[in-house]
Write a structure and sequence with these properties.
The complex is a heterodimer of chains A (518) and B (111). Helices cover 23% and strands 22% of the residues of chain A. In chain A, strands 7, 8, 14, 15, 16, 17, 18, 21 and 22 form a nine-stranded antiparallel sheet that branches. Chain A has a six-stranded parallel sheet with strand order 1-9-4-3-13-23, with helices on one face. A four-stranded mixed sheet of chain A has the order 2-12-11-10. In chain A, helix 1 runs parallel beside helix 12 and helix 5 packs across helix 12. In chain B, strands 1-2 form a two-stranded antiparallel sheet. Classes of the chains: A alpha/beta (518), B mainly alpha (111). The interface between A and B is large, with 39 and 34 residues.
């Protein structure tokens, strides 16, 4: 089939398929690609068009506030619009292409991390990670990072007992931010399959349940020109993103007053996201930085080319357990003028030289090297961090807008500080370098840079009291409704979620192809 | 307890931390430490001393250089042990071992 602009359809004309995928972002496209050429008749309903339309984008408008103990609240009302793209390809249009799998520890139930634990392991997901890497044309991520004979690509020699390791990252060209032409093929070519139709400018505004609430009967589709349609299928998949999946489930409250899949008040809760933390140098300090004592170039961590594969320093399960912290990474980047004042800079040079000598790596090898850095820390699952509906305000299609209460608890930053200190101590104990972390807890929200990674709002768990979807990604209590995307992540780890979104979409495709569409 | 090392031995031990080529060239101790900006080292040392007001030249010398010149390996081990037990000195955000802080303290006292 191909693409159909829904604006050209007669008013109230039906849309029918075996399987309807709501959302043409990275999750929906990957799922459709996997099903292309198969026996199922598939329809993808995408709200936007090929290019960003601000009238469509405005459907995302809402409000957002970040909260954390001891920090002033941070209002981010532009975030619901600016952190997402409502067009074919979704946020893949602005994705930089960075790929990383979640670490084995991210899947584990950790007793110091409330609500942690996936109903699958990294090993279980590895075959799907491999397929996702193949699709994105990047090297597969082994569970153990390969070693290199090139000194510049050798990892820092940290003591394994400390539990920190070098976690690899790679870049795919199939992203709007990397190679627009390649990404355009990625988001469109699958629609040539005879069993796939992509409807553009088709906004799903309500999930219509059967009277007993056990099945989805139809979707209500709205257009900005005022026309409406009904979409029917045997099975439905929501794939509209970590905020919008929750919004659509909550707003579909005519049969079940709390919304679809929300019998246990979980939809929208446990919102998690990634933030990066760093400060520039000033009169008082060097800013966030690492002095590395070795002379060999640090290309493994800070390559010359921006999109070359690289590694970050990460806290494995052993470090997390020891420090009672979540996942934590430190990303290094090549030295540049940090803005440190003259006394601070002179003291940096002096203490770095002494540290290099104490580490036994001075002398003819030089005085080591200074790298900038930023940290990321896992946002622990928190039921008070949530997406809710703002029933006072509606979008142009009549849907309630979202309000995002993005909330951290004391445990998040207790662990963060212990992890940063723990990595600094591991570097020093191993004679590899020293960490500069001049960040005060009360400034963390203010200095944080928010990602576009929205996770956790329809979390996965075999127990319907603990999860919105089951391990097959089917909504508990609804026979024919699935959810794809990062909203199903029980925990967020640190990795850019796109690769895991693709891996889970491929896993879901296998499930749907195995007879689940009834 | 070892005898208090002479000022010459202390400086020689500090030289051992400096660049090997400088030592090989017989550079005088003061010059061999040229990489350590004296004013900056003193400021770091004063900051450490502020947090350790009971420290003095004799106590630091006994702690850091009980064996005079053969100090480097011991300092390295002491620094690693400090990091393992959380005995750290944080200066302008830099996380140093307490042993390194004490070294700067000694330099400041010797200045």
């Amino acid at each position: 089939m191909a693409f159909i602009d829904a604006r050209g359809l007669p008013d109230a004309s039906p849309i029918e398929a075996d399987l309807i995928i709501v959302g043409g972002g990275m999750a929906g496209i990957t799922l459709a690609r996997e099903l292309a050429g198969g026996a199922l008749k598939v329809a993808v309903l995408e709200s936007g068009d090929r290019e960003i339309d601000m009238n469509v984008q405005a459907l995302y408008a809402g409000s957002a506030t970040m909260r954390a103990p001891g920090n002033p609240e941070r209002t981010m009302d532009a975030y619901p619009i600016q952190s997402r793209i409502r067009a074919l390809g979704g946020s893949g249009n602005v994705w930089g292409g960075k790929c990383a799998p979640l670490d084995p520890a991210d899947f584990a139930a950790r007793d110091w991390a409330p609500h942690s634990g996936w109903p699958m392991s990294r090993r279980d997901l590895q075959p799907f990670y491999d397929r996702a890497c193949d699709l994105l044309e990047i090297p597969r991520f082994a569970e153990t990072a390969p070693t290199s004979a090139d000194p510049a690509l050798r990892p820092l020699e940290l003591d394994p007992a400390d539990g920190f390791f070098s976690a690899p990252r790679a870049y795919s060209r199939y992203s709007g931010g990397a190679d627009k032409a390649a990404f355009d093929r990625f988001r469109t070519a699958f629609a040539q399959a005879p069993n796939v139709t992509v409807y553009l400018n088709a906004n799903v505004v309500r999930i219509g349940l059967a009277a007993d609430g056990s099945r989805v009967e139809q979707l209500e589709v709205a257009r900005l020109d005022g026309k409406r349609h009904v979409a029917r299928a045997r099975t439905f998949v929501l794939a509209v993103g970590g905020i919008e999946n929750a919004r659509l489930l909550l707003a579909s409250d005519d049969v079940r007053p709390a919304g679809v899949g929300n019998d246990h008040d979980l939809v929208g809760r446990f919102f998690q996201a990634h933030m990066t933390y760093s400060v520039d140098g000033d009169e008082e300090s060097e800013g966030t930085a690492v002095h590395v004592s070795r002379a060999a170039p640090m290309d493994l961590y800070a390559p010359k080319a921006r999109t070359a594969p690289y590694s970050v320093l990460a806290a494995g399960e052993k470090a997390q357990s020891r420090l009672k912290a979540g996942n934590f990474t430190l990303t290094l980047f090549r030295g540049q003028e940090t803005g440190a004042g003259a006394p601070a800079k002179a003291e940096t040079q002096t203490l770095a030289r002494l540290a290099t000598r104490v580490d036994g790596q001075g002398g003819s090898a030089g005085d080591g090297q200074l790298l900038g850095c930023f940290a990321m820390t896992e946002h622990f699952p928190n039921p008070d961090s949530r997406v809710v509906l703002d029933r006072e305000h509606h979008d142009a299609l009549g849907m309630p807008r979202v309000r995002l209460d993005w909330t951290y608890g004391a445990a998040d930053w207790d662990g963060f500080e212990r992890a940063a200190a723990g990595l600094g101590d591991a570097l020093g104990a191993a004679g590899q370098g020293r960490l500069c972390w001049p960040v005060r807890r009360e400034q963390l929200l203010a200095i944080a840079s928010a990602s576009r990674h929205h996770m956790g709002t329809t979390r996965m768990d075999a127990d319907p009291r603990r999860g919105v979807v089951d391990p097959d990604l089917k909504v508990h209590g609804v026979d024919n409704l699935y959810v794809a995307g990062s909203s199903v992540f029980p925990t967020s780890g640190i990795a850019n979620p796109t690769l895991t979104i693709l891996a889970l979409a491929m896993r879901l495709a296998d499930h749907l192809k195995s007879g689940a569409v009834r | 307890m070892s005898a208090l090392p002479a000022r010459r031995d202390l400086l020689a031990a500090l030289v051992a931390l400096a660049a090997a080529p400088a030592i090989a060239a017989g550079t005088p101790p003061g010059d061999a430490l040229e990489g350590l900006d004296p004013a900056a080292a003193e400021r770091i040392g004063r900051a450490w001393l502020a947090a350790n007001p009971s420290a003095n030249t004799a106590s630091l010398a006994r702690r850091l250089f009980p064996d005079g010149r053969s100090a480097l390996q011991r300092l390295r081990r002491a620094a690693a042990a400090d990091f393992r037990r959380g005995a750290v000195f944080v200066h302008r955000g830099w996380r140093l071992s307490d042993t390194e802080g004490a070294l700067f303290g000694l330099i400041a006292l010797k200045a």
